[in-house]
From TrEMBL:
Protein name: Mannitol dehydrogenase
Keyword tags: Oxidoreductase
Domain Mannitol dehydrogenase C-terminal: 282-462
PANTHER family attached to this UniProt entry: MANNITOL DEHYDROGENASE 2-RELATED (PTHR43362:SF1), MANNITOL DEHYDROGENASE DSF1-RELATED (PTHR43362)
Amino acid sequence: MRISQATLSGLAGDVARPGYDVGAQRCGIVHFGIGAFHRAHQAVYTDDAMAAGDRDWRIIGVSLRSGDVADQLNPQDGLYTVVQRSSGGASARLIGAVSHVIVAPQDPDAVIAALASADTHIVSFTITEKGYHRRPDGALSREDAALASDLAGQGPPRTIYGFLAAGLAQRRAAGLPGLTLVSCDNLANNGARLMSLMRDYLGGTDAALAEWFVQTCRCPSTMVDRIVPAVTDADRSWLADRIGLQDAAAVITEPFCQWVIEDDFAGPRPRWEAVGAQIVADVGDFEAAKLRMLNGAHSALAYLGLARGYQFVHEAIADPALAATVRTLMRCEAAPTLRPAPGLDLDAYADALIARFANTALPHRLIQIAMDGSQKIPQRWLETLAVNQAEGRSCAAILEAVAAWIVHVRGDVRPVDDPMAAKLADLWAEHGAEGIAAALFGEGGVFSATWTASPEAIEAIKGQIAGVAA
Ligand code: CS2
């Protein structure tokens, strides 16, 4: 039997229930990209905030493309379990914060109506790096088909920009207040970037609305952190035995959870800080440390680990050579580029990250992390490389990882899941092992807006490519 309001009496007694009247809450948040990460992170904080007394903050999820999550959550009245798993054991809790999911291509008007509702105060996003439709230099990628269609006003919206523009126009016309747009994706300065991308989009479509947007809406930056591997069928059947009901929307995660949010809201918000989030004046130092150390190490483990035949993060980090590379990357290459955020000891942070990667109770596939590298490496590696290069330091560990990524995107060993996969394969065909590093990172290269590699760095990558490819 499937979990839902009607079947809850069948749920195992030791699964914690929401500490508030779920059905009595209105929706105050619209969330784009309601994947496993959101369900294990922001939705949990919001569930806790309502249990602590906040009201009317249930979440309407929006899927921009597939109907899969709607099929998982809607028949369950939005209910699902979050399982926390570590070597110490597993615990499960039921989350009531999600109301329902709208599949945007099936019902675009419902998405716009949710954005235009007087009850909505916050719109948040986990749409992954590529959901922002940016070029490698960070500007709006106007040539992208979905974005071009939205900019031209052809048919219903397809991107967050098109939907936001339609929703904001209705709010403005109705005299409603602006919204807080909360990016929860792993981009550097995610709030400021979203603000500037949205302003650029509106500037090209509706200048008066662009002005209203800047005056009334806010885009706080956030740092989000929780490792949430994709759930497998085996996980779901293990969970059904454990909790007594089938749950198609369950998520399995680690005990660790962190959310640092810039204190910059347009209107009301849940008291997330009362339930463990940090609301701070400046997120930048937290964000840079997390992206360059955790995510930087993750991506290095992904490409170097796959090349050595590993499948999971915990296997790769158990390899002494890879552990040494990752430790060097974090402590000697990333850390010197960072200003420690208040209370953050970067050496201790690196050790804690290695312990999290080693969690064998939470198998995390390297191939999941290897996805979309072209969207990830600028903020994970290239900013670190740029700062170190400017200060005369080289970064052997990151360059080794860069070489492994370059070999990965050649695409002849395993499929490359990346919006730039075709372009990267073409570059390989055109430049070969001799010229590919310069085509990507040299003067005028694809990624040179973030890091223009020195001739020495290009040579070092070339040497590594020969090593990895051999
Ligand atoms: C990972 C992240 O898939 C990836 O690229 O590096 O999803 C990572 O697990 C999270 O950012 C941890 O907070």
